[in-house]
Design a protein that fits this description.
Elements: H1 3-6, E1 13-21, H2 25-36, E2 42-45, H3 54-57, H4 89-102, E3 109-110, E4 115-121, E5 126-131, E6 136-144, E7 166-169, E8 183-187, H5 193-201, E9 206-210, E10 217-218, H6 227-235, H7 237-259, H8 263-280, H9 284-289, E11 302-303, H10 307-311, E12 316-319, E13 323-326, E14 330-333, E15 338-340, E16 343-346, E17 360-362, H11 369-372, E18 391-393, H12 406-426, E19 432-434, H13 436-450, E20 464-465, E21 468-469, H14 477-484, E22 492-494
Parallel strand pairs: 1-2, 1-6, 2-3, 4-17, 6-18, 7-16, 8-9, 8-16, 9-12, 10-11
Antiparallel strand pairs: 4-5, 5-6, 13-14, 14-15, 19-22, 20-21
This protein binds NADP nicotinamide-adenine-dinucleotide phosphate (NAP).
NADP nicotinamide-adenine-dinucleotide phosphate binds near residues 149, 189 and 212.
Protein name: Cation diffusion facilitator CzcD-associated flavoprotein CzcO
Pfam families: Pyr_redox_3
Organism: Arenicella xantha
């Protein structure tokens, strides 16, 4: 069916082969690969007015990637213009724009389309999708590419509404608030906070960082690329392939091995982190407070050259007493102290569970995904879940990583989804659905393996839903890519 024929605007209903929700790295990659496979009858619905996903949303000062850009980019789209090893938010967003343009995705992108619901019509084997402004779409295949780190998590502290100063979350940075000479509090000190704290520490009058847990932090050792390095990577593709491999191997055989509990690599990562701490923090009491009390890799290992030096500044204080409540002028902590602030910034991360919480997804016989996942999200390789035929998830349950680029996982998933679609088409079937017992078997394997990894050795993290690790993959990218290279058709039911 051609694109023009398949789009019927009658009754405000647009019919397509595939609908993709979300125009971040995952959604864009899906679009590119669908076009390559000749499955061009698709739209990417994006609720915002621009593409980019997390790189559009997170504009806080100092926002940059904590995976080197040579690897945190599509394997098929090398960018010789990266200015430094770890790129800033604006450059990554530009890369996404340039790539979308180069691969001709503009006509497939629909902005301002916030998907409210998606339900599967069993009789017709079609997904019916509605947006918040009443637009309706119908597609054979539905691909969710909504990310895991999107909706800011703002803990509900008692009396929060009483605070008279300004408050915002790092993922919704309020650039209208001038922090110069202000008394500022930051709640949280993880991946986002360690990036913006050094930036704002330079201009504020005072900064109090409220830490609940310390983090393992490796030095980033960033530097701008020399012109000759950029030219070399543009002209000699082998250079970039070797460089990607080197970055990948450091994560896969270094950090992942530590996460897996290997004593030697855990000791090495731990030692490098402690050396980094010692190098910048002279005060033994502060050093103790900044030393994590959980194994390396249980939470994301961070990279920063600037966080510890910022904490060593005279205008910066680390508060470790827990926050009891807000007051009209600031925060009250469990040690009875009252702290006064002009601005409070939440660096408290994202609501990562339940998955797909903001879309009412209903599969066969009206089965709600919330009910299907009431004991925690699960999916076969994070992509397929029983009861939801032709629903394909990118960056779904148990596909996050703590050691390397998520784009490797996304590309493997996208290729896998294309294979699923092609098989449905070639078999002249309407849909494919994962077998319930096979999905359960896969998830048992995941949970058994995850229970031996560092991720399971903290009481809570964004990787977990209650006691269950719902977000992370239980191995390396090499294994994931290998296992997704071929579809095991015996575990799918075609109908
Ligand atoms: P996060 O890792 O979830 O950290 C949230 C921080 O807020 C933690 O320090 C947490 O303390 C603290 N917190 C949460 N609730 C609190 C409460 N009620 N009271 C006090 N403190 C509280 O969030 P994030 O820093 O935004 O990072 C999330 C993920 O985004 C990262 O793991 C990473 O995958 C990704 N990220 C990536 C980049 C990049 O460069 N690619 C940059 C930023 C973020 P606890 O540790 O005690 O829970």
């Amino acid at each position: 069916m051609t694109e023009s024929k398949s789009r019927s605007l009658a009754h405000n209903l647009t019919k397509l082969h595939t609908l993709i929700i979300g125009a971040g790295f995952a959604g864009l990659c899906m679009g590119i690969k669908l076009k390559e496979a000749g499955l061009s009858d698709f739209l990417i619905l994006e609720k915002a007015d621009d593409l980019g996903g997390t790189w559009r949303e997170n504009t806080y000062p100092g926002a940059e990637c904590d995976i080197p850009s040579a690897l945190y980019s599509y394997s098929f789209e090398h960018n010789a213009d990266w200015q430094s090893k770890w790129s800033g938010q604006a450059q990554i967003l530009k890369y996404q724009h340039d790539t979308a343009l180069k691969y001709g995705l503009e006509n497939h992108l629909r902005y301002g389309c916030s998907v409210d619901s998606a339900s599967y019509d069993d009789a017709r084997a079609r997904w019916q999708v509605r947006t918040s402004d009443g637009q309706e779409f119908e597609a054979q295949h539905l691909v969710t590419a909504v990310g895991q780190l999107h909706y800011p998590s703002t803990p509900s502290f008692p009396n929060a509404e009483a605070f008279q100063g300004q408050v915002f979350h790092s993922a919704k940075w309020d650039h209208a608030v001038d922090l110069t000479n202000k008394r500022v509090a930051v709640i949280g000190n993880a991946a986002s906070a360690v990036q913006f704290i050094p930036e704002i520490a330079k201009k504020v009058k005072s900064l109090s960082v409220f830490q609940r847990s310390a983090n393992w932090i490796l030095p980033k050792m960033d530097r701008p690329y020399a012109k000759w390095e950029q030219r070399l990577s543009a002209r000699v593709p082998m250079v970039i392939r070797v460089y990607r491999w080197y970055i990948w191997a450091a994560g896969e055989y270094g950090v992942l091995s530590a996460i897996n509990g290997n004593r030697l690599t855990r000791w090495v990562v731990r030692t490098l982190c402690l050396r980094n701490l010692k190098r910048h923090i002279n005060d033994p009491e502060l050093r103790t407070k900044l030393t994590p009390n959980y194994p390396v890799g249980a939470k994301r290992v961070l990279f920063s050259d600037h966080f510890y030096p910022a904490l060593a500044r005279d205008n910066v204080a680390l508060e470790t007493a827990s926050i009891e409540s807000f007051t009209s002028r600031g925060l009250k902590t469990s040690d009875g102290a009252e702290h006064e602030f002009d601005v409070i910034i939440y660096g408290t991360g994202f609501q990562t569970n339940p998955f797909l919480a903001h879309i009412d997804v209903r599969g066969r016989n009206g089965l709600s995904i919330r009910d299907a996942w009431r004991n925690g999200a699960h999916a076969y390789y994070g992509v397929s879940t029983h009861g939801f035929p032709n629903l394909h998830m990118l960056y779904g349950p148990n596909t996050n990583l703590g050691h390397t680029s998520i784009i490797i996982m996304l590309e493997a998933q996208v290729d896998y989804v294309v294979r699923l679609m092609q098989r449905v088409q070639s078999a002249q079937a309407s849909a494919c659905e994962i077998d319930q017992a096979e999905e359960a078997k896969f998830n048992q394997e995941m949970q058994a393996r995850l229970s031996t990894m560092a991720f399971s050795q903290v009481a809570n993290s964004w990787y977990m839903d209650g006691n269950k690790i719902t977000n992370n993959w239980a191995g390396g990218t090499k294994e994931y890519v290998r296992r997704l290279q071929q579809v095991d058709w015996s575990v799918y039911r075609l109908n």
